[in-house]
Each structure stands twice: as structure tokens, then as C-alpha cells.
Specification:
Number of helices: 4
Helix content: 25-40%
Mean pLDDT: 86
Low-confidence stretches: none
Number of domains: 2
Number of strands: 7
Distance between the termini: 36 Å
CATH class of the largest domain: Alpha Beta
CATH architecture of the largest domain: 3-Layer(aba) Sandwich
Length: 168
Amino acid sequence: MSQPIPAIAATLLVRDDQGCYLPASADQILEAARQAIDCKLQRGASFTSPDVVKDYLRAKLASYEREVFAVLFLDAKHRLIQYVELFQGTIDSTAVYPREVVKEALHLNAAAAIIAHNHPSGNPEPSEADKSITRRIKEALALVDVRTLDHIIIAGTRSVSFAEHGLI
């Protein structure tokens, strides 16, 4: 569902199938932003600071109207192997299965992972369910020698890092 185009978006144009340029919709702008962040931080990009990770995840997750659970799979030097959106839910929850996270980590030969999800409500504070699933995923990944570096919750322009708050 498209949202109204903010005034600034009216200056951005996209080309339609006939080659005519039209004002971009908010959804087209957000999709272009997701593609741009993929180009900027491709496989092998190093996530050396929490701010870089948060910026990347904001571009990927902030605009979703439903919860999306994603994982950044990293090598031993914390370079990006792959960003994967594993689970999608409703406006206030999503089912997350640690087994699937472990399967993907093994498939990608990851040494570390940063888990993330969005809160469409706009409140980035972790729930008890968020804390519980983080513990379960961390324990499951540890069994196969994959370190869980952080869990970041994105809520619009705000975010919470479990690592920065001593929750992981």
C-alpha cells in the first residue's frame, strides 16, 4: 500500500515503462534506498562499529509495516557474508525459529551473526519475547561455534542495541 508522497519526494522522479518521468512514490523511494544500501555495503564490507550496523539496518528495515526478522551473517573478521530476511510477521509480532537461523549460518559458513528486527509501532524497546528469542538464538548458534554479536531493534529512525545495553 502506497503512502502519501512527502513534499521532498515530489522532486524525485522515476521512469515508467514508456520512458516518461513521473514523481516517485514513497514506496519506490524506500525500495531504491534498500538497493542503494546493498550497493554501498556489499559482501565483504566490514561492520566495525554499531553505528554502521544501525544505519545499514535502518535503511533495510525501518519502512516495513509489519515485523521482519533479519540476520547479518559475518565471517571471522566481521565482514558481511550476507543479509537475510528470514521471517515476516504481522504489525506486532513474528514467529522466529532458531533452527532456521542455525541452518542458514551453517549454509553460509558464518563465524558470527547480528540479529535484527523492526518494531513498526515506533517503540524500539525490547520486549520480554525479544529478550527470550535472543537468548535462544544465541545458545543455538553457540552450539555450532557461531558468535551472536548483537540484536538490534529498529523502530523508524530510532534503534536499540542489545550489546550496547548489556542485554547480550
